[in-house]
Amino acid sequence: MPKFAPFFANKLTSWYLIHKRDLPWRGSDNPYYIWLSEIILQQTRVAQGLPYYLKFVEAFPTVEALANASETDVLKLWQGLGYYSRARNLHFTANYIVNTCNGVFPKDYQGLVTLKGVGDYTASAIASICYNEPTAVVDGNVYRVLSRVFGVHTPINSTQGKKEFKSLAQQLLDESQPGTYNQALMEFGARYCVPQNPECSNCIFNDRCEAYKTNAVGQLPVKLKKRNVKKRYFNYIVILSENDKTLLQKRTGKGIWQGLYEFPLLESTSEINEFQLKEMNAFQELAKKHQLSEITLYNETSVIHKLSHQHLYTRFWIGSASEKITNSISIKNVKEYAVPVLLQNFITEFFSS
């Protein structure tokens, strides 16, 4: 155990009790609220996630209400948060808890970590906050604080790094108040020991922080290089009929945006012009099926939408059709469908103009 483990825990908790933010799920040991907040805040900053948490609690005040909702309604409410598998897992797990667990969340880490969409971090957070179980949380904020204060250079996204940081976090844990301590550690990383330009000169640990003493704050935590970002080229065909109808299709299969809706999509290997678009067999089939009379490019400059491992270069093509669009929907209802934020931005601009 690090020599100043008790000092670290006491000082951190004291800082937290004075400086913690007043967040709606804090002070509660209701596992539904804690679970919901943790799922929303995965890969999402509090400022962005808080409005979504409030919307979800208002729409689905209990796990039963969430389970009884349709997946489409859940995805629509989630729209804009990204990583939509989190929303699908949220809905799946709510159904599991209601229908298999009689509406009762598992009451320890081992049970919680078996839930779909719940990993080590989320299970540790719920177990410690709701059930006072002494299990340490490790997330991006925790990696950053521990790597800097204790001078750990093991890459955080390596197998060895994950084991090492989990072990260190567990050693430092204040077992008398694990929930408060875990929240303190996450809060300190999110608000003080930030990724860029932290105020180290005013830090409560600056007399003991290894990174500060060795001028290595900017180099920690260490992370192995990510794989190369893949470029993809999307061509959305926005079909408009004479009777104000259009066409949306639900994305099925695995991959990005599963369960969300989109306009007919033709993917190319590079950016293409109108002639190249019309040469595509898939476009010719689409044009014949829906009797497209003309097609025009809406945006000359592709919209670049960046995901974690891929960048989408997107163009929207507007197609005019007769009234016979198969499985069409009214244009005035387009905004009711759950779509990726990329399409939501287009819909807001195009159909409001």
From TrEMBL:
**Main EC class of this protein?**
hydrolase
Say yes or no: keyword ATP-binding present: no
Q: Which superkingdom does the taxonomy of this entry point to? A: Bacteria
Q: Does the UniProt entry include the keyword Cell inner membrane? A: no
| Co-factor binding comment | Binds 1 [4Fe-4S] cluster.
- What are the residue boundaries of the HhH-GPD domain, all occurrences included? 40-191
Q: Look up the EC number in the record and give it.
A: 3.2.2.31
**What keyword terms does UniProt attach to this protein?**
4Fe-4S, DNA damage, DNA repair, Glycosidase, Hydrolase, Iron, Iron-sulfur, Metal-binding
A UniProt-annotated Pfam family: HhH-GPD
Q: Which CDD domains match?
A: ENDO3c, NUDIX_DNA_Glycosylase_C-MutY
Gene3D superfamilies to which the protein is assigned, alphabetical:
Helix-hairpin-Helix base-excision DNA repair enzymes (C-terminal), Hypothetical protein, domain 2, Nucleoside Triphosphate Pyrophosphohydrolase
Q: Which GO terms describe its molecular function?
A: purine-specific mismatch base pair DNA N-glycosylase activity
Catalyzed reactions: Hydrolyzes free adenine bases from 7,8-dihydro-8-oxoguanine:adenine mismatched double-stranded DNA, leaving an apurinic site
* Cofactor(s) listed: [4Fe-4S] cluster
What's the stated role of this polypeptide? Adenine glycosylase active on G-A mispairs. MutY also corrects error-prone DNA synthesis past GO lesions which are due to the oxidatively damaged form of guanine: 7,8-dihydro-8-oxoguanine (8-oxo-dGTP).
The similarity annotation says: Belongs to the Nth/MutY family.
- What protein name does the entry list? Adenine DNA glycosylase
What species is this protein from? Answer: Jejudonia soesokkakensis
Q: Where is the organism placed in the taxonomic lineage, from the top?
A: Bacteria, Pseudomonadati, Bacteroidota, Flavobacteriia, Flavobacteriales
